């Protein structure tokens, strides 16, 4: 079973069994890209998908990254991995198996002792950090960086309350509104697109100029004579 074939039954299973959950796909967490990040009421839950065609080559690094960001972690596998997958993840990780008949839980997830709010708060948009400052009667810090604001929130707000507020804001997040403080990767992508657009504009102008010149016919009396 392929990755994309596994996602729909997985999402149906999460909707039916995990209560109130918002699903975020392909989120960057440290050096990995989380396949599925589930936001629940005061918790972050990670789901790493390994299809029948995937190997465990990068899993060790992925486990370390998920463990920094997620309060509970699951590996989601195709049936071919069922026999040996427990050998590749820590005991606190849960195991979900996607088969042709649906999703089965082979092992539930335990509290992740490595989860860190310092990492989790990096998932917040800058405008959401400003909202958290407001919610907790903190100074606005309008000219400060995201890192500075995050540090102040971690210092001044009780962590359980702060995480609850963070997950509440992510539930309200509107992805039609572009974040006003892009990540480094987003900035690189923007620059790349801008360079490509400028190149296309130059090429279009060159073609337009050439076509305009060739299209003039002095024999037909439409061209201008040099003075």
What report would you give on this structure?
By secondary structure, this protein is an alpha/beta fold. It has seven helices and six strands; from the N terminus they run αβββαβββααααα. The chain has helices at 3-17, 59-69, 117-120, 126-135, 146-156, 159-172, 184-215; strands at residues 22-29, 32-40, 43-50, 72-78, 94-99, 102-107. A six-stranded mixed β-sheet has the order 1-2-3-4-5-6, sandwiched between helices. α4 packs parallel to α5. The chain is globular. The termini are far apart.
What is the mean pLDDT? 86
Overall outline: globular
Question: What profile does the largest beta sheet have?
Answer: 6 strands, mixed
Strand residue content:
15-25%
Structural class by helix and strand composition? alpha/beta
Helix content percent band: 40-55%
- In whole angstroms, the N-to-C terminal distance is 74 Å
The ordered string of helix (H) and strand (E) elements is HEEEHEEEHHHHH
User: Count of helices?
Assistant: 7
Mind telling me the C-alpha Rg?
25 Å
Main β-sheet, spatial strand arrangement: 1-2-3-4-5-6
Strand tally:
6
Extract low-pLDDT stretches: 209-227
